[in-house]
Amino acid sequence: MSDSEQRQLHVPYREYHSQNNSSPATTAAAATAAAAAAAAAATALVETDALVDLSIAPINSSSSSHHQRLSLHNDQPPSPADLLPDVEFIPSLSNDQTLAIDSSGIDRESQPLLGRLELDVTFNRFPDDPQFSELVWQAECAIDNGVYPERIYQGSSGSYFVKNPAGKIIGVFKPKDEEPYGRLNPKWTKWMHKLCCPCCFGRSCLIPNQGYLSEAGASLVDRKLSLGIVPNTRVVKLVSEVFNYPRLDRQKARMKQAIMDQFPTVGSHFNRIGLPPKVGSFQVFVDGYKDADYWLRRWESESMPAHLSREFQLQFERLVILDYIIRNTDRGNDNWLIKYDTSVSKNGIEQGEVKIAAIDNGLAFPFKHPDSWRAYPYHWAWLTQAKQPFSEVTRELVLPQLSDQNFVQDLCDDLYQLFKQDKGFDRHHFDRQMSVMRGQILNLQQALKDAKSPVQLVQMPAVIVEKAKGNGTPRLFSFSDTFTQRFQNKSPFFSWC
Ligand SMILES: Nc1ncnc2c1ncn2[C@@H]1O[C@H](COP(=O)(O)OP(=O)(O)OP(=O)(O)O)[C@@H](O)[C@H]1O
Ligand SMILES: [Mg+2]
Description:
This protein is an alpha+beta fold. Helices cover 38% and strands 11% of the residues. Residues 1-30, 63-85 are annotated as: Disordered.
């Protein structure tokens, strides 16, 4: 989808905010006048079945015969007519596009008016992953039917448990603008942190407010290496009144609703009535898991059956591989989960299972190795499992891929496709992120070849692998690229491993 198409679908909040500075009272008083004017426009509207967007358009956008724009001037109080929302016609879908939206067994005809643009729905469809598409669809249906997401209170960001229409939790949604230091983070502790301790605000090695991409990126790395420990995570857009929205967005949504209630004929042509969708990461919720800390403490006093202990070791090694490649800066024992079940079958054979889920991957993919006052160590490095050399099974699983430059290049390309969708994407920073990741892969590859242990791995000097200067091709990476390797010479003030 091109940029211009995207602008038609979703008017960013910033544009709305910068021009629509009317007070709530004025807005409410103007609603009726706006509704009347909208009714006048209805005569023209009923003649067409084109989709209609009620977004307020930027002042300087060019007008066309199809567009009726707002003309708000900052130096004059807005007249009621000024508050009439912009009516924008979006061309009808081609047959192909309609099929794409409707094809995944989704009966959109019977759905109520959704709080999002019709075309936006394609954003949440993943042709390569119908199961995930279906799950997000369930979440959307639930929200449309009043089964709202629930904020996770223990976290530092605005994260939400998302439910299906039956009220079962199926996912964890983390909107970009509610991340720990995001514009709309609802947690007062983070607000205080920003206010009272600005010097320690955020992590200097990470690109701020791209945690949702890091979450989805971790899942991508997991999928490509078949690690199977990160619950499937992708970037989606969701809208719900329980999310944290600026007051102006809520007022705008209420005004549209008032028009809808009083003039249903006009309202029925409005495609988006509600609040604007939020972009964020959506992670599949895994059932039956507990914080790793819980089981690690239990295992200090209770022993694990040998076969489960072996299985846990293999799972643990996959966690190490993931964290090391993405250079996770936030892997405390509360940020991974363990499912542990020791069932014994009727004939007395010990069965059971142990599985790891690597959640909360939002603080990874740094653009430089940590070099300021904190080292952000991997907390698993203190566990006894970290002292054992990597197993043959793990080495066979990942070493062939990590040693293949085409695979690494492919991984960088896929991450590029993912990361570039952020509005603040910066190619230079992305290249640096990839240089760190390539350095990590180089170390990991060597450690696996030498059958080192995770503890030995984290003690290896930090490496950066950069594309050699002077052979910059327009493509992100090309097969003819040469890379140079250098060691990071600056170390964090505190370093434990
Ligand atoms: N995919 C998941 N499946 C099951 N439970 C999950 C999942 N993701 C998160 N949780 C639960 O929600 C809690 C908070 O999740 P998470 O740590 O990802 O949120 P957060 O808001 O980023 O918190 P913080 O940044 O403070 O660590 C976890 O401790 C875990 O209990
Ligand atoms: Mg957490």
